[in-house]
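Postdoc handover notes: sequence design on the structure in folder B. Input tokens:
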């Protein structure tokens, strides 16, 4: 190969590849605005008084955390105050419940029949005893009558005990006084949850701050995990007479966790939610002067909102009149 040709070839290999022409950016953002540049609201002292604005600092508090799981409203199917077979084995399917109801009906009939037989043999024994005393019956007649009565008594007792094993009637008509909530949990989560105390039950799509109802755990022997299952069912009873939810309704159940620690906390009344679901507070940056600050609500316990992010500790925020400040900022307030 000639030296000139070799040098030209090496020059081509060593030269950088031509860059493709720059194209349009993958996205464009118009009217971009930093949250630090949000509108500042300055009120007159009279306007601040009319809006009844109250102030409080952001605090660092120890708040028990909670996780929300899906649950189902069920009825224990027993209104007699005693434990039914269903309360012991609440995982029964509707087909199994109907089959159990049939067994209970058959057992009730057997109890009634054995009681009739016992009454009849008792009458026969009484009559034979009278005849024996009058000399109209032999000792053998009396012994036979007594043996029949004793056999009927054993049969009646056995029938009654068998019926008791089947529990209270599962199909007993009557007003439902107490509703239960069934929650299926992954067994690996059980040691990280505080299930022995009170849980809060709300709508399945409830947001932080929406009303919830308290419920307490119900101890049932059927809690044991089925073989091969990675889930366990827990049961919680709502307050007696509570009618907010209906049997079969899906709900959200907030269960406290064993995690605890200090977190940013503000009054729930200080939180405002925008049209997109974002949550905010209004910081008081100067006398009669307010600016909206984004926060992320972790959970709500009573009237306190725990924040995953928000203003630093000690920042003064508005706790009442927040909706009025929001309306003022967007021109819909009075």
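Designed sequence:
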């Amino acid at each position: 190969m000639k030296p000139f040709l070799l040098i030209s070839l090496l020059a081509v290999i060593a030269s950088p590849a031509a860059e493709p022409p720059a194209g349009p950016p993958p996205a464009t953002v118009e009217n971009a605005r930093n949250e630090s540049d949000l509108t500042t609201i300055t009120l007159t002292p009279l306007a601040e008084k009319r809006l009844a604005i109250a102030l409080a600092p952001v605090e660092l508090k120890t708040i028990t955390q909670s996780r929300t799981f899906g649950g189902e409203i069920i009825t224990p199917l027993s209104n007699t105050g005693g434990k039914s077979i269903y309360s012991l084995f609440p995982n029964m399917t509707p087909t199994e419940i109907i089959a159990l109801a049939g067994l209970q009906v058959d057992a009730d009939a057997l109890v009634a029949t054995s009681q009739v037989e016992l009454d009849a043999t008792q009458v026969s024994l009484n009559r034979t005893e009278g005849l024996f005393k009058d000399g109209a019956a032999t000792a053998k007649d009396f012994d036979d009558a007594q043996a029949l009565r004793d056999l009927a008594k054993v049969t009646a007792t056995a029938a009654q005990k068998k019926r008791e094993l089947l529990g209270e009637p599962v199909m007993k008509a009557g007003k439902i006084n107490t509703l239960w909530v069934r929650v299926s949990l992954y067994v690996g989560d059980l040691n990280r949850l505080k299930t022995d105390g009170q849980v809060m039950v709300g709508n399945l799509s409830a947001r932080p701050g929406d009303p919830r109802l308290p419920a307490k755990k119900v101890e049932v022997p059927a809690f044991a995990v089925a073989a091969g299952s990675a889930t366990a069912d827990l049961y919680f009873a709502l307050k007696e007479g509570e009618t907010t939810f209906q049997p079969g309704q899906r709900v959200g159940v907030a269960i406290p966790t064993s995690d605890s620690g200090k977190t940013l906390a503000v009054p729930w009344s200080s939180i405002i939610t925008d049209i997109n679901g974002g949550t905010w507070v209004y910081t008081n940056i100067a006398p009669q002067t307010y600016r909206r600050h984004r926060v992320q609500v972790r959970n709500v316990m009573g009237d306190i909102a725990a924040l995953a992010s928000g203003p630093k500790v000690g920042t003064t925020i508005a706790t009442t009149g927040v909706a009025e400040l929001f309306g003022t900022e967007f021109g819909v307030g009075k």
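Context for whoever picks this up: Residues 199 and 255 are 5 Å apart (CA to CA). Don't rerun without checking with the PI first.
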